[in-house]
Amino acid sequence: MPVTHVRPNDHVHLQSIASLFNSTPKIVTLTGAGISTNAGIPMSRIASRASPTRTHRFIRNLRDAGRLVRHYTQNIDCLEEKVGMSTDLREGPENRWDEGGRDEKTLSGREPLCPGCAEVSETRVTSGKRATAVGTLRPDIVLYDEEDLRAESINAIIQYDLSRRPDSFSL
């Protein structure tokens, strides 16, 4: 697959990319912070009130047409979810971070309290004992220079996606 670097004012390449997307039955996409800058989110930042961009909706349309093999994202802004695309590797309600408004607290710069720690401390106080320290929670995201603990799961998904023989990989 040839690699083509395209600038926004390069109409010839943009037209060829549009033609490629129109004629390709199986597409894999990978996005990073650049996809969200048009939503008003500065690079490497998150924003809770941002709206999905045309690119987010375009990728969802590929999915709805049955042509998207997988959409990989490095973003934690949840804009994919706002257009109805799940990006969570895990299943089930126990894996939802946003219980108790944790997203809003985290996005506003406040760290949410550990509910289990708070419950233990409150139980101690109501029984006449001293309060214990209540820790804060950190979202399950990979920060700079950290290893992703889900690397094996991600690798298995990548291998599965490759076995489906995608026709195009868009970065």
Write up what this structure looks like.
The protein has 171 residues and is mainly α. It is 37% helix and 8% strand. A 3-stranded parallel β-sheet has the order 2-1-3, with helices on one face. The two termini are 13 Å apart.
- Can you name the CATH architecture of the largest domain? 3-Layer(aba) Sandwich
Low-confidence stretches: 90-95
Number of helices: 7
Secondary structural class: mainly alpha
Secondary structure: number of strands? 3
Could you state the order of secondary-structure elements as H and E?
A: HEHHEHHHHE
Largest sheet: 3 strands, parallel
Q: Which fold name corresponds to the CATH topology of the largest domain?
A: Rossmann fold
Could you tell me the strand content as a percent range?
A: 5-15%
- Into how many domains do the coordinates divide? 2
Shape: elongated
Mean pLDDT: 80
Multimeric state of these chains? single chain
Identify the CATH homologous superfamily of the largest domain: TPP-binding domain
Query: What's the CATH class label of the largest domain?
Result: Alpha Beta
Domain Deacetylase sirtuin-type: 7-171
Keywords: NAD, Transferase
Biased composition (Basic and acidic residues): 89-108
Protein name: Deacetylase sirtuin-type domain-containing protein
Label this structure with key terms.
171 residues, mainly alpha, three-stranded parallel sheet, 7 helices, 3 strands, elongated
